[in-house]
Amino acid sequence: MSRKVYQPAEMNGVFAATRNAGNLGELLSLYENGAQLLVDASGVSLSGKAAIATELQKLIELPGTLVSNNTFCVEHGDLALLRADFTLTDEKGVVLYSGFTAEIIRKQADGSWCYVIDHAGASRYGAG
After folding, report:
1. What's the pLDDT score for residue 72?
2. At residue 70, does pLDDT exceed 60?
3. Any residues with CB less than 8 A from the CB of 99 and at least 6 apart, and which?
4. Can you tell me the distance from the alpha carbon of 39 to that of 45, in angstroms, rounded to the nearest whole number?
5. Domains by residue range for the chain, with CATH
6. Residue 126: count of CB within 10 angstroms of its CB
């Protein structure tokens, strides 16, 4: 099954909900086939769904609940630039991991939107 996003501003919320459901296939469906995932500030990046799947599986395996809230969404034709703040919290509400993202998504032929470039940045562990 594939997950579809038809409003660009909904992408980060859908990503978090899909991650929390633990379905790797649905998470991957949010990416174009040739998408690029920037793994960290060192510049390490992965291209294509097969490579991205490994990182997404690691994200699914982290304990806690992911919440991702858009800071902005700027649409231009069939592209949109997104930025979001996210937190991964345990069952007591303690922040385990937090940071922000920057993404470029593209409108697909069926009207849905998919990641072209996905980057989680300035992430940190713990509340302090």
Report:
1. 95
2. yes
3. 85, 86, 120, 121, 122, 123, 124
4. 5
5. 8-125 (3.10.450.50)
6. 9
